[in-house]
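Aim 2 progress update. The chain analyzed this quarter is reproduced below.
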Amino acid sequence: MSALTLDTHRTVKRLMEAGFSSDQAETVTDVLVETRAADLAPLATKDDLAAVKDDVAAVKDDLAAVEATLKADIRAVQADLRTVEATLKADIRTVEATLKADIRTVEATLSAKIAESGRATLQWTVGLLLAQSALIAGLIKLLAGH
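Predicted structure tokens:
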């Protein structure tokens, strides 16, 4: 910061050469020193910048750690989802197989009932045909005998 320092002795000397009294030159020089100190106070020093640089590096490290943790968590969730997906697919295949078996059972039961119903209908039809034939034969005998 040597470029920003004020040579107070030289400043007082120059002001006195310009016609200021010793007290005036010292007062103006003091005011200049205070003004420069006040103006420079909010400026960051090299140490301040180094501290900020260290803070930024620490934040980057923290972010890298958080990123790594999040990536690991995402991979774990993806693995869990793959497991759930595999389980669901297996469950779907099981339910599908069960439903197909149930459908085959219902079809077999219906086919048996339809076949049974068909046999009963055929028996009734044959029985009615025989009864009708016997009735017609009886009527023919009765009418022929008359």
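The chain is about 90% helix and 0% strand. The CA atoms of residues 110 and 116 lie 10 Å apart. These observations will guide the mutagenesis experiments scheduled for the next reporting period.
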